[in-house]
Design brief:
The complex is a heterodimer of chains A (411) and B (296). Chain A has 411 residues and is an alpha/beta fold. Helix content of chain A is 44%, strand content 15%. Classes of the chains: A alpha/beta (411), B mainly alpha (296).
């Protein structure tokens, strides 16, 4: 064999080897899952009740996506981090997810203080961040291109509450809010919205420690002269304790005073193990009700969740599922996990999620930036102890005005 | 009427603080160490009471002594395994006994919180009510039925504890050990047994406090942290090791927080006790009922 032919044979072999390696690498790459980071509270003092619902929601969504073949031929892998609802830990968790786990996006945060800490890191690393349930307007007002909000926002609730108080004819309103960005932020917004929409209403709010237990010193001054409505802007477990103590003191709900839950806690799985008579006649700002009409994807998520947990779906379930779905929709549209391509795809997204048509506003104006503005909401009333949400009474249908005639007053 | 409301609420909270603080004070009196895991006995009692009622359907009036028993047993185990080296022949450990006590009780606190978090779960549970009456009117004051009965039960437990410590055979031995461990030992008192009894009693009292409040404060694994901090303040305010001092200081703190929460600021409610603590340490370091230490 001549030198030339030996070289030729070797060259052919090398080319074949290189081609084989390339194909193998491509196959391995194709099989590599796409990692998505999920930050949730799985231990106190954060709301574990919320964290668990979010965890279930993203897991149900991931299974649906992976069962359908994944995205771009790759499976979705969720990487969870427990934040304990503490901003410092949330920041560290996001840093770890981005730098160590190499996630392509982050979803799941359900507390505003955590989201506010997390978006700074996501912004610094230019990684898409889907804010699942941070309601504080401040998250949107930062104007970070990486941050998208398929969840609820404080301005929406504040407007809804102000209109409800006006419809109820309330003259004096007192809010109890937790000492977080979400709680204080919403209480202040409510004041501004009441001043604009119901200027005659006398309003004040009291900030309570979310780790507190005895709230009576804050509640007792209301006994002598109860307001027309008490609004609770708190998360469990403190929210449950406040409800019980309001009821034990005969402050709200009562024949004189409406009780309004602005945080949507009535559909939490542990709600009735912590609150009993205190929740009867309570009005609830609801982002989901079983009587609402859901798109097919929403029905599928609800059914899978109930099969998995034996629990009834909650609004957090849908928010969490949508958070992951929008990430995969963006990857599909961009045909890439590259941040700029994903952000561009998210800005142009027009997609039907679990609760309706989702699109993000690109208007760079305060809370509207990268927000799904048309989130459906309603108001319902709990009319019996241990009542399933499906049996509660809708007093304001989505997109309609509240009808005070439908409300039952406490005796 | 608001004044009366605040006074009654403050006194009731003070009773629950006292149940916690008495145990801490007894431990300090006899071992001269601070138990940083004391709040977790409160948490264990709250869970024992709540889960016995919710899972096993046991009457709250049986769950209450059950919680006390759980607190006592855990107290005994902790004393035997972790605290006894402080005074039972481990001379090298005795050199750094304060450091040892801080580290071991702090570690125990974290261990118990995390164990309960993993085993029972992080969710809140509302404990069963001792009486099925939502509100009771005491003249113009409206009070939850459970809160009132729990406070009365708490007062009963405090009185019983006081009588046992003051007049019973073992109570007198505890007093003797608290006054002078070596002297008591020379007089034939089993100081190790006295210490074990104190730890069991302290654990039981904290557990009962947690159980009585389980219907009001919906226990979570970290529920004992705040009451423990309050107890440290109370023990210093009342005088380290003084049981009557702890009771008076508990009531003072309860009432102060109640009134301060309305007339000063609710948001700074938890700081009132800490301000008092600083003032006491500055101007009367022996506390209200404590004796000034003397070196001879």
């Amino acid at each position: 064999m001549s030198i030339k032919s030996t070289f030729r044979t070797h060259r052919t072999g090398l080319v074949a080897l290189a081609a084989g390696l390339f194909a193998f690498a491509n196959a391995a790459l194709a099989a590599d899952p796409i990692k998505v980071g999920v930050t949730i509270a799985q231990s106190p003092p954060g709301s574990v009740s919320q964290g668990t619902q979010v965890k279930d929601g993203v897991e149900v969504a991931a299974k649906i996506i992976n069962d359908a073949g994944g995205v771009l031929g790759r499976k979705i892998e969720l990487v969870f981090e427990d934040t304990q609802g503490i901003p410092e830990k949330t920041r560290a968790a996001v840093e770890k997810l981005i730098t160590s786990d190499k996630v392509v996006a982050i979803v799941g945060e359900h507390q505003s203080s955590g989201a506010l800490a997390a978006i700074e890191v996501a912004h610094r690393y230019h990684v898409p961040y889907i804010n699942t349930n941070g309601w504080s307007d401040a998250i949107r007002e930062k104007g970070y291109a990486e941050v998208f909000n398929p969840g609820n926002y404080n301005s929406r609730v504040a407007i809804a509450m102000a209109e409800t108080m006006k419809a109820l004819g309330a003259k004096r309103v007192v809010a109890f809010c937790e000492n977080t960005d979400y709680g204080v932020g919403l209480a202040k917004l409510l004041g501004a919205q009441l001043a604009e929409r119901a200027p005659g209403v006398e309003y004040k709010y009291e900030t309570l420690d979310r780790a507190g237990k005895d709230f009576l010193p804050a509640l007792l001054p209301l006994k002598a002269n109860p307001p027309d409505a008490v609004i609770e802007i708190m998360l469990p477990p403190a929210a449950y304790i406040v409800l019980n103590q309001l009821y034990e003191q005969g402050i709200a709900p009562s024949a004189k005073t409406y009780l309004y839950d602005a945080s949507g806690i009535a559909d939490y799985p542990d709600f009735w193990t912590n609150v009993s008579d205190a929740a009867k006649n309570m009005l609830v700002f609801g982002l989901y009700h079983p009587k609402m009409t859901l798109p097919d994807l929403g029905k599928k998520v609800a059914a899978d969740y109930t099969a998995k947990t034996k629990n009834q779906p909650s609004r957090l379930l849908f928010q969490a599922a949508d958070s992951l779905f929008v990430v995969t929709e963006a990857i599909k549209a961009a045909k890439s996990t590259e941040p700029d391509a994903m952000i561009k795809a998210l800005e142009g997204l027009k997609w039907t999620g679990t609760r309706g048509g989702v699109s993000f506003s690109t208007e760079k104006a305060g809370y509207r930036y990268h927000q799904w503005l048309d989130i459906p909401y309603l108001t319902f009333q709990i009319t019996a102890v241990k009542q399933p949400i499906a049996d509660t009474k809708i007093v304001q249908d989505p997109g309609q005005k509240l009808d005070p005639a439908r409300i039952e007053k406490a005796k | 009427m608001l004044t009366l409301d605040l006074a009654i609420n403050g006194l009731i909270i003070g009773v629950f603080y006292a149940l916690m603080a008495i145990g801490l004070s007894l431990i300090f009196g006899i071992l001269k160490v601070v138990n940083f895991a004391h709040g977790e006995f409160y948490m264990l009692g709250a869970y024992a009471y709540t889960l016995a009622g919710l899972l096993l359907g046991i009457s709250p009036w049986i769950s209450l002594p059950f919680a006390f028993l759980v607190g006592m047993i855990v107290g005994l185990i902790v004393e035997r395994l972790l605290m006894r080296p402080l005074y039972s022949g481990y001379t090298s450990w005795a050199v750094m006994r304060d450091e040892y006590a801080v580290i071991v009780t702090f570690g125990l606190s974290l261990l118990l919180i995390n164990l309960v978090d993993k085993i029972v779960g992080p969710y809140a549970y509302k404990g069963p009510a001792l009486v099925d009456v939502t509100r009771i009117a005491l003249g113009p004051v409206l009070i939850s039925g459970h809160r009132l009965i729990a406070a009365l039960a708490g007062i009963g437990v405090i009185i019983a504890t006081g009588l046992i410590v003051r007049y019973s055979y073992w109570g007198r031995q505890i007093q003797a050990v608290a006054q002078n461990r070596l002297g008591a030992s020379l007089a034939g008192i089993d100081t190790a047994k006295a210490s074990a009894i104190v730890f069991a009693l302290a654990g039981g009292l904290a557990a009962v406090s947690g159980a009585l409040l389980a219907n009001i404060f919906n226990p979570t694994p970290d529920v004992g942290v705040f009451p423990a901090i309050k107890s440290y303040v109370i023990v210093v305010l009342g005088g380290m090791g003084s049981v009557p001092g702890s009771i008076v200081a508990s009531l003072i703190l309860g009432v102060l927080e109640s009134f301060g929460g309305v007339y000063i600021s609710y948001q700074y409610r938890d700081t009132f006790g800490l301000v008092i603590l600083i003032l006491v340490l500055m101007f009367r370091p022996q506390g209200l009922f404590g004796e000034r230490a003397r070196d001879v």
